[in-house]
Design a protein that fits this description.
By secondary structure, this protein is α+β, with helices and mostly antiparallel strands. It is 20% helix and 39% strand. The chain has helices spanning 29-32, 111-122, 129-142; strands at 14-18, 21-27, 36-44, 52-53, 58-64, 67-71, 74-78, 83-86, 92-96, 100-108, 146-147. The protein has a six-stranded antiparallel sheet. A three-stranded antiparallel sheet has the order 7-6-9, with no helix packed on it. Strands 4-11 form a two-stranded antiparallel ribbon. Strand 1 and strand 2 form a beta hairpin.
Amino acid sequence: MTGKIHLARPGEGRPHAMTDGIHTVKAGAEHTGGAYEVFEVDAPRAPAAPPHRSPWAGTLYVLDGTVLVHVDDEKHDLGPGAAITIPAQCAFTFEVTSESARMLAVTSGDGAGRFFADFAAAVPADRPLDEVLPRLLEVTRRHGVSVAEPGR
């Protein structure tokens, strides 16, 4: 065996404050040889982030609460125990429909963690979207993420 076991206990991991919630790294690319990453997402009820396309695929698994997931022209209501897999380059966002939601996000490759870290450092999570949009667009461009209208 060439790898090293990585353990993330409850409450452990690097948190990244994003506009749609706190994304905490539970298993980073450095723990998986760059194959995938795992994040715990704690999200309040709030307006959805703009739909966006990313170069990595991902799966959302709902632990607590309910979310409405928008993927291209489709909408999916998810509650605890439900999961949805979103291919790379699909326009995607989610909105929390309960008071809050907690999810696991598993992403392919090693790009999401770098994106979340850069985004959290550059875009204040507590400011209105119209105020932070220029910074948001700079960060998304650096990581191959694009803000998109669903279905386009």
